[in-house]
Amino acid sequence: MRTYREVAAELAAQIADGRWAPGHRLPTHRRLAAEYGIAVATATRVYAELERGGLVVGETGRGTFVRDRSLRLSSASESGGTDGREGTAVRADLAFTQPLSPSRADLLRTALRELAGAGDLDAVLRQQPPGGRPHDREVVADFLRSRDIPAHATEVVLTNGAQHALDLVVRAMFSPGDVIAVDDLTYPGFKSLARAHGLELAPIPTTATGPDLAALTRLCAHRPVRAIYTMPTLHNPLGWVLDASQRRELVSIARQHDLLLIEDAAYAFLADPAPRPLASAAPERTFWLSSLSKSVAAGLRFGMLVIPPAAAPAIGRTLRTTMASPSGLISAVAVRWLADGTVDSLEHAGCLAAGHHQRILHRELGHLHPIAHPRSYFAWLPIDPDQRMDRIAAELSRRGIRVCTADLFATTPHVPHGLRLALGSPATEELPSVLAEVRAVFDTVEPR
Ligand SMILES: Cc1ncc(COP(=O)(O)O)c(C=O)c1O
Description:
This protein is α/β, with parallel strands linked by helices. The chain has helices spanning 4-16, 29-36, 40-52, 105-117, 134-145, 162-173, 188-197, 213-222, 244-256, 278-281, 312-321, 328-339, 342-365, 389-398, 431-444; strands spanning 56-59, 63-66, 92-93, 156-159, 179-183, 200-204, 206-207, 210-211, 225-230, 260-264, 286-291, 303-306, 378-382, 401-402, 404-405, 418-422. The strands form five sheets. The chain has a seven-stranded mixed sheet, sandwiched between helices. The structure holds pyridoxal-5'-phosphate (PLP). Pyridoxal-5'-phosphate (PLP) binds at residues 97, 161-163, 187, 189, 231, 236, 264, 266, 291, 293, 298, 303.
């Protein structure tokens, strides 16, 4: 009789060959046993082995399905994937920030079932207005008002994620050569947009608690700065939350120099309670944006942009020439989750999980003095300038641990040394051993 390993290897080869599409339902344990002439208990071991290898997913009461391996998994160690380099197996993905919680499949199944039972289902397939349907925008505005963002539905634009919201603002409001002030370490997605649209990024030096606002004032006095791109509530990658007086000063600088503010709140829900958003103090000049990528799911692609009323015509024109309108189907699901408290509870669960992972990080790597908000999805590990950032990152990569190096975030010609570790991909049980390996690499790679 064939062993479970032999049968698992044969099925694994067939899955790798692409014989079945992702999501394909595999035979029941009983049928597999009959097909291969093995015991049912052996068939169960076959599927367990394939699941451990990240090739299939078993869903209680539903069956066993081929997993889509082209996508990042919540736990990289089970993926057996590669990081794009020939032969480098990805053991842990500490590069990508995503929600730290379990599957959303059941939530999605319920939402789709409810949606299917709703009246006028055709509405989600009809062409949507550029910023989304009035009712959907109303629900988002209500949700945002509960977060101290004084949004009126006509100033809310539904987008395809926060990155799309940023792209809209950049396309609608700026021209090549415009100068935008940014932190000296900032979100890489904004750097790419600036590069693509020919904007000049003027770095604001950072202090331990946020941007150096005196330096920003000097910058604005000397350069024709048009806007500030900022993450006042849970900065990526440094995790800071600006206090009320820093926010007042930032708004006062913006008013004094007539600057636009781009307030990126992608991770703001993790820092609850936080001082009021800039959008509530300066709605006439603030573009506030966020998405459900970090609280619900990165693949949902549902973003929320609140614009100053005067920007409506420019944003409307840009919307029509870019995305035309948001997806009615995605908006219907997202809006349901915003209205029925699902997003609130996922945010809460995200905060708890992030806090737990931060405590593990501090236990394992506290001696390296990580910089992080206590409920952040990531942490910044500063490295002495003479100390080998590239060699540490290369050694981690050789061991299958992906991290982000400082050059990705830096807006200064001189790049500080540091790594950002995202803590969302490894499962909680695996995180200590992954971080212990990071510690071992720091211990073994010698200073120059
Ligand atoms: C600070 C920040 N803003 C925006 C985004 C983009 O988010 P989305 O996936 O909604 O496009 C990210 C994603 O990592 C981010 O870190």
